Amino acid sequence: MLDLAFVRSNLELVEKKLRDRGQDPAALLGNFRELDQTRRERITESEKLQAERNRLSTQVGQLKKSGQDASAVMEETKALKERMDDLAAAAAESEEQLRAILMRIPNLPADDVPVGKSEHDNAEVKRWGDVPNFDFPARPHWEIGEALGILDFERAAKISGARFVVYWAAGARLERALANFMLDVHTGDHGYTEVMPPVIVNSKSLFGTGQLPKFAEDLFRSADEEGYQPGVYRDNDHWLIPTAEVPVTNLYRDETLDDAALPTSLVAYTPCFRSEAGSYGKDVRGIIRQHQFQKVELVKFVRPEDSEAQHEKLTRDAETILELLGLPYRRMLLCSGDMGFASTKTYDLEVWLPGQQLYREISSCSNFGDFQARRASIRYRPKGQTKGAFLHTVNGSGLAIGRTWLAILENYQQADGTVKIPEALIPYMGGQTAISGPKVSGGKEK
Questions:
Q1: Are 268 and 248 in contact (CB under 8 A)?
Q2: What start-end ranges are recorded for coiled-coil regions in this protein (predicted)?
């Protein structure tokens, strides 16, 4: 959420940044200027009335002390108090209306974010690795996985419906191996502290990180007694997390961290759940868009002056996983029109998929500035100061496990149908160096 004082003092800049995002400032800001002016006028008038009431209260005391009748002046002070109460209520109402406006305004793009409308305007920052040059037709992961008997879409659809998958045998172990490998690298080499949070959260948590109210249709909500109402955020309702960013960021909601504790870097491995609303017809083959998937998430709580450098470091930490696995990728700087709601700057890491002959997002690493911290009320106490200030949050996938899994199948496929195991994963696979077709495929005889 943006700072009210900042929006008030920089309204033209805010309008420009919203246009850069492809948003209509008039629709988002509404009557912000008039509401803010009215609120300030009411507060100013109330302060004047308070000064007059103080003067009259002194006069009442003097009249009583001298034995004179103070009833008329007392009636006047009573009327002033009633007027002040009305002004306070009106100012509070304006404050709530302003807050409702601020809640729907996305974060503003950083100055070095390219202005654009869609993914076609994103800027390539770097490219790493050589794409494999096979002497046979490269196959997509869904064909490889089904042929090896390690992917089962049919049974997943039977037990859960579309956009679910069952991993079998070496496929299941590869998923587990990737999670352990990523956690070991991030905790051992990159200095993150591992945390295992709940995967069911309340709406206050989803509001804090910016998923609510805008993205309610993309989430899975449990059938609580009270239904969800936009603008009402509770601590006793239940939603499945779309990413570990939500529970990990909210670990410090309504708290103040010590300056000495920053940066705080956390890593979590969790299942994630998304309804993929509006994506039907896209990526219907394979495991690109699933309702349930596993992910290793990186989250940082940092000082404002360090957030840019920490964003770069977190992105580099995620890139290291791809490099250790030998997966070709590119880093993209998202344009203003393609960024997430809460982000001020985002890098997407896109891995090369030879079976589909394209780069596909495998990690999104974002700097949120103090946007999430304001919504979730997360502060820190700067060194030498007694008053708290909002810190900055940074996060990203380190990495999405399912997409890393499929990238390995496509990049390490062999002409005989087997899949080599990247060298870094062999210890996590119990020494297994390749995945070959079993005698049974998903429990069915061939």
A1: yes
A2: 35-97
pLDDT tens by residue, 330-378:
999 999 999 999 999 999 999 999 999 999 999 999 999 999 999 999 9
Name 287's Cβ contacts closer than 8 Å, sequence gap at least 6.
141, 142, 151, 165, 293, 402, 403, 405, 406
Say whether 19 is catalytic: no
Q: Please tell me the predicted confidence (pLDDT) of residue 282.
A: 66
The model's pLDDT over 38-56, given as tens digits with 9 standing for 90+, comes to 998 999 999 898 998 899 8
Out of 289, 303, 316, 330, the active site residue is 289
DSSP state, residue 21: T
Q: Give the domains, in start order, of the chain with CATH numbers.
A: 4-104 (1.10.287.40), 119-435 (3.30.930.10)
Q: Is 361 annotated as a binding residue?
A: yes
Instruction: Name the stretches of the chain with pLDDT < 70.
Output: 225, 227, 277-283, 438-446
289 is annotated as an active-site residue: yes
337 token code pair:
């029109």
Strands, E assignment, 133-277: 151-152, 166-167, 193-194, 200-201, 239-240, 256-258, 264-273
Answer yes or no: pTM beyond 0.85. Answer: yes
Residue bearing tokens 């006028």: 41
